[in-house]
Design goal:
Elements (H helix, E strand, L loop, with lengths): L1 H39 L7 H11 L1 H22 L2 H7 L8 H38 L13 E2 L5 E4 L2 E2 L5 E11 L2 E15 L2 E15 L7 E11 L18 H7 L2 H27 L9 H26 L5 H25 L1 H16 L13
Antiparallel strand pairs: 1-2, 2-4, 3-4, 4-5, 5-6, 6-7
Helix pairs in contact: 1-2, 1-3, 1-5, 2-5, 3-5, 3-7, 3-8, 5-7, 6-7, 7-8, 7-9, 8-9
Length: 381
């Protein structure tokens, strides 16, 4: 049908423009957030854009749902404003006849939302968490930049090196200031190298001097020289993580686990798809606009509905994870309730019951007026 094809084309243009704008906004916000994490030492500065890309990829289900919702509301509101909906209704079609062309347009987006929520979201989170853990678990000497004083991960030692080798395993002119066992220890050496001993990483210093001074007394200064001295460099050669957050676990592993935390995460992932379907119906019902008023109020109400629905989805995840509600009962209550509400509202709008009530009231009022006798009518008036 020509009308359906033109409607889908306009929806595609509106959806594409909205998606580009939202992705740009989210990328800007994630860039600022990632730069803040990099400045705190939680993210490798060389991997800022990679972490940002994984983060934006994880938020794609929400971005796609919001883009689809805004595209439908904006397009139908424009049709109301330009009186195209009047032509549609005058041809004998109702508002419910829009469901079929809208679903034809939305089903590829719904499949993409399901794929991103069930597969893309955990994969992106696992990649981001893996990079952050790998960067945080690096040894203290690997944190050091030549020519700069750098604190250790526990903030109890300060490292300085003059030069290092390309592999980062050997350094020259090493300086270490540390606080250990109530002593202020200053160690300097001509060179140092990293070796793995018993799954721990050590810094072996050569040809240096060690100075120990008590923190709370003036006496007890001790100076010693050494040819070889070993100190713990932090980290471990084969650091492993035993626990993985639920948001970084695959959907199949969550289905096998069936714990409260896993069910809460599953409820959120499947809920994103159900919410996107409900958003199509809600967008169809809230898009009605008075041409004399404008469509800004419609868009504000639509965004408010999206925010409330999305926050309820996140709140339900925490409730299911804490064991307060079951996954099935909460999803039936939230998504089923929204679906019934949207369907009832759409039926009300499709049958135009309010207009019919007004017409009946007008007819009843006209019938209640007293009739004027023909004899009292002046033909010359």
């Amino acid at each position: 049908m020509l009308f359906h094809s033109s409607l889908r084309k306009e929806l595609s243009r509106s959806f594409g423009a909205t998606l580009v704008v939202l992705v740009t906004i989210v990328m800007t916000m994630m860039l600022i957030r990632t730069l803040g994490l990099a400045s705190k030492g939680s993210v490798n500065p060389q991997e800022v854009f990679l972490v940002m890309a994984y983060t934006v990829l994880g938020y794609m289900p929400t971005i796609l749902s919001l883009s689809l919702f805004i595209a439908i509301v904006g397009t139908l509101s424009r049709m109301y404003r330009d009186s195209e909906m009047v032509i549609w209704f005058s041809s004998g079609r109702g508002l419910a006849d829009f469901v079929q062309p809208l679903l034809r347009f939305a089903w590829p987006v719904l499949l993409l939302i399901a794929a991103m929520a069930l597969v893309g979201w955990p994969w992106a989170n696992s990649q981001t968490i893996g990079m952050r853990q790998q960067y945080e678990q690096r040894s203290d000497i690997e944190r050091v930049t030549p020519g700069e004083f750098r604190e250790s991960s526990g903030r109890l030692r300060v490292f300085f090196i003059d030069k290092d080798t390309p592999d980062g395993a050997t350094a020259t002119n090493v300086f270490i200031w540390a606080v250990e066992r109530g002593l202020q220890i200053t160690t300097s050496a001509r060179s140092g190298r990293i070796e793995d001993i018993d799954n721990h990483r050590f810094l072996l210093l050569s040809n240096g001097q060690r100075l120990e001074r008590p923190l709370f007394t003036e006496s007890g200064l001790k100076i010693s020289e050494f040819k070889t001295y070993g100190t713990r460099a932090g980290g471990s050669s084969n650091a492993t993580g035993d626990s993985t957050p639920t948001r970084a676990r695959s959907t199949l592993s969550l289905l096998r686990d069936r714990s409260d935390a896993s069910l809460g995460e599953l409820g959120w992932r499947f809920g994103m798809l159900l919410a996107a379907i409900n958003f199509v119906l809600l967008a169809l019902t809230v898009s009605s606009v008075n041409p004399r008023v404008g469509r800004s109020g419609n868009l504000v109400f639509a965004l408010f509905a999206f925010v409330v629905y999305y926050n309820l989805l996140n709140l339900g995840q925490s409730w299911i994870s804490s064991g307060r509600y079951g996954m099935g009962s909460f999803m039936l209550l939230l998504h089923g309730g929204v679906f019934l509400f949207a369907t009832a509202w759409l039926t009300l709008r499709n049958n135009n019951w309010s207009a019919r009530r007004q017409a009946r009231a007008s007819a009843a009022t006209a019938g209640a007026l007293p009739a004027v006798p023909p004899s009292r009518i002046d033909p010359t008036s």
